Amino acid sequence: MSSDHIHFVTGRLAEHALKAILVDLSQAAGFRYSVDVLPITVAALMTPEWIARHISIPKQATKVVIPGYCSGDLTPLTCRVTTQVVCGPRDLRRLPEMFGHEDPHKKDYGQYDIEIIAEINHAPRLTLAEILAEARRLSDAGADVIDVGCEPGFAWAGVADCVRALCDEGHRVSIDSLQPAEIGPAVRAGAELVLSVNSSNRDAAADWGCEVVAIPDDPKTLRGLDQTIEKLSISRVPLRIDPILEPIGCGFADSLRRYSETRHQYVDAEMMMGIGNLTELTDADSAGVNVLLLGICQELGIRSVLTTQVINWARTSVQECDLARRLVHFAIKHGIPPKHLEPKLVALRDDRVLAQESATLARLHEQIKDNNFRIFSEEDGLHLISAAVHLTNNDPFLLFEQLLQTSPKNIDVTHAFYLGYEMAKATIAKTLGKQYQQDEALDWGFLTVEEKNHRLKHFQNNSDPPRK
Questions:
Q1: Which of 12, 123, 8 lies closest to 56 in space, CA to CA?
Q2: CATH no. for residue 96?
Q3: Domain shared by 285 and 180, yes or no
Q4: Statement to judge: residues 97 and 215 lie in one domain
Q5: Domain assignment of residue 122, given as a range
Q6: How far apart are CA 427 and CA 243, in angstroms?
Q7: What's the rounded mean pLDDT across residues 342-367?
Q8: Alpha helices in 201-353 (DSSP H)
Q9: Looking at the 3D structure of the chain, how many domains does it have?
Q10: Is residue 351 domain-resident?
Q11: Rounded to the nearest 5°, which phi and psi values hold at 365?
């Protein structure tokens, strides 16, 4: 145990959660500690100046940790105390990271070896400016290769200009076509991969001088695949094999079996899986589907996936695949389930919800001395609490009616709008099973948009915030 004594500052609402974390963390990190619960419910409303007037620092303290929301100018506090003052994280659950005690097994998290090929569908229908803009979006989301999706039935005269422009912007490019008259100009313009090659065009592949994706003539029987692979191998054409993933209802399970069989037949071959046939053609949010498919690819050694994000429920598939490939790589490398590793992929619901007991809320109501409203989303309904009221209802409209029946003196148009907005978030959280924290954005994983909290800013500009 070191000589460090760390003094943690918090509000009443976070007291028990903080103390529970510090029991184990103090032993692991080797420090002594004390907890200063200041006379305010929500620690986010503290300001450095207000803390300075209420804090009681023990003589043995060597450092003070204040809530993360107090980041910024700490001068009003540091000029009044002699002990070092630092801001902790906004989320208490990340406190161990501050002391270097993140799970050591996660130190190499983020590695991956699956390449993401993102298709721009129906490229001939788009202007060059639209294609370049979409390519930038896909690349920013994590795509490694931009796939130019052509139209069957005719050769696109502008394909070379499109590929050249993409390459000039620094993108790696593939061409999605079966037509040699379209593929040749694309390859000469800089395309490095051809999707796809079967018996209809394999004789021309030796002239392209680039890698190709070998596919069967008939996915259900894999007819023609072995012959295409043999022909390409003899011609020394580098290749990847894609047995073709079929949608649910059209042979999905059998197509997975064919990927496994192909891997066992061609042990060292590069393989690709076109996963859009599942994400685009299944009525389900795409994130979970992408994780499952990337997990299959990782286990089978399939090192590239072709995806697209056309339909609205799959509009973030590239970013989902980028997160998923890191998750499954770590899980399979370490032989563990992919659980509690990637919170950004848990969007619809939260991994856990911290509930307040009824007795805790009742005590809180007794302790509050002001008329500012606190909102809680609990299993038994939404709670609205101030010094004057403790109201509960599952319906936010009825809850607001109950509030109006108490003839509150502090409800103006702005405050009513604020309460309505917060109760809407609380209702969404209750419906989906998410953590609700007043004045905080709901956690939607990688889709979260942080809120600019005007109400919080208002109180933090006030040197003496209400004892919320």
A1: 8
A2: 3.40.50
A3: yes
A4: no
A5: 115-345
A6: 46
A7: 88
A8: 225-234, 252-265, 276-279, 286-300, 317-334
A9: 3
A10: no
A11: -60, -40
